[in-house]
């Protein structure tokens, strides 16, 4: 009988300790993982039909149809870009990437991002919301997933982004690899 | 005795399992719930005394006193709006809603929001900070409560917003139903 | 035997209760604590070599080289400021503070902040991302640390900021006392 009680104690202890560990040291592998692409076409004064974004803020030395000198420092761009599942601009969009970015360095290419993914399809409903820094010359970089709504209720995580393609200063395509570490 | 040990094992198991569940599957009913209204009066060049917000960014086809064509795409608005407990613009404000929104779609009414509620009264002290997307034609929609300070230290949650009333393109009133799911 | 079973039950209960408490009531002392300074030099049309920020949005009554009347209401400023470990502008920077602030009150000095600290040194690698309200006349105030990447992966917390020094409307220095309450 003593042996069985000791075993029981050990068993409980094991359960409790493993649970405690799972609580204190959270999981570092994503609880959910999604990959998307989005496509940005900056308005340049002549591409109104195709443009998905527009310069809406500029420093004193800039204007609203050409990204400014000095690495575009001070340009604020508002966008509503199609999200696709693959890297093809002509694929059927599964959602929209909406928000803004601003170029914020005078000596290199860096952007500060604040935007949301908006989904309203049979596959995904809700929003995923991002904030972070994009040093454009670095191949892959991490930004924050500050939270979500709908299917992504209260989720938090990290998005690894990279500029998958670009053409001049009018088109670029971003690959967004979303890893949620807090799922609800 | 064997029966009592079995019962004990079952009892421990029950405790541990229910705890594990409470840890893995967090609560989905709010730990705190608040409702506010805020009132936005956009500056139009003539209402300086009453205006609580101003257009500060516009696309090339816009200006700073009239919201732009194409669903106001590209307009950036900075605001400092009174918060009230009911839907009456003339009620005594209990705080201020401060930040910005930007219209970010060319084909429908959509805004991206980044703002904070600032309280400094006997009832509430601190800030609640929001980010998210507002598709204006959808009756109710969810945005993020990314965090708080003071009385709302480290809180996270969801705010359900709806445009409770509006007059032309100068006045609108937003109802904000805040549900915190992480309280500290 | 009954006594040992009772003791075992008590022991399990104790473990479970203490664990439950540690889960429900999170720690309120920081799990990590860092202090930095950053230095902002606003472009005024003449200080291009030194300026670390620029006005990129203004209300109808403003312009892009002088902060506007009415407590700068409506000015949007984009910045890329050096971060130092002490309050000396000439110290070797340990990172960059990048993002934007906007003045959002007509009757007093208040700014809304959205920015990131970017580190890429032997000491720190990664980003810390901030959002919040800065009532400039209040000595110290709290803003949110909404999350981090790299060394600050998924961290959340509060940053207490104060304007450590300023010169006219061109230079100011912010002290940022970062307390993380969620570390990973």
UniProtKB/TrEMBL annotation, chains A, B, C:
Pfam families from the UniProt entry: Dirigent
Signal sequence extent: 1-20
Keywords: Apoplast, Secreted, Signal
Location(s), subcellular: Secreted, Extracellular space, Apoplast
Any one biological process term the GO annotation gives: phenylpropanoid biosynthetic process
Database matches in InterPro entries: Allene_oxi_cyc_Dirigent, Dirigent
CC terms in the record's Gene Ontology section: apoplast
The keyword Oxidoreductase is assigned to this record: no
Broad class of the protein's primary localization: secreted
Domain of life: Eukaryota
Family per record: Belongs to the plant dirigent protein family.
Subunit structure: Homodimer.
Function of the protein: Dirigent proteins impart stereoselectivity on the phenoxy radical-coupling reaction, yielding optically active lignans from two molecules of coniferyl alcohol in the biosynthesis of lignans, flavonolignans, and alkaloids and thus plays a central role in plant secondary metabolism.
Protein's name according to its UniProt entry: Dirigent protein
Species of the source: Cynara cardunculus var. scolymus (Globe artichoke)
């Amino acid at each position: 009988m003593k042996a069985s009680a000791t075993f029981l104690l050990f068993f409980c202890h094991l359960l409790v300790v493993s649970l405690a560990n799972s609580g204190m040291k959270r999981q570092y592998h994503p609880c959910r993982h999604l990959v998307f692409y989005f496509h940005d076409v900056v308005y340049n004064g002549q591409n109104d039909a195709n443009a998905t974004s527009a310069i809406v803020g500029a420093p004193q030395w800039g204007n609203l149809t050409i990204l400014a000198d000095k690495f575009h420092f001070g340009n604020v761009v508002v966008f509503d870009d199609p999200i696709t599942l693959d890297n093809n601009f002509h694929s059927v969009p599964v959602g929209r990437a909406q928000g803004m970015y601003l170029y914020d360095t005078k000596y290199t290419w860096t952007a500060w991002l604040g935007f949301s993914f908006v989904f309203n399809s049979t596959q995904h409903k809700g929003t995923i919301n991002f904030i972070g820094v994009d040093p454009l010359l670095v191949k892959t970089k991490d930004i924050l997933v500050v939270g979500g709504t709908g299917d992504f209720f209260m989720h938090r995580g990290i998005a690894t982004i990279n500029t998958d393609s670009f053409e001049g200063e009018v088109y670029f395509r971003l690959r967004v690899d979303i890893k949620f570490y807090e799922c609800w």
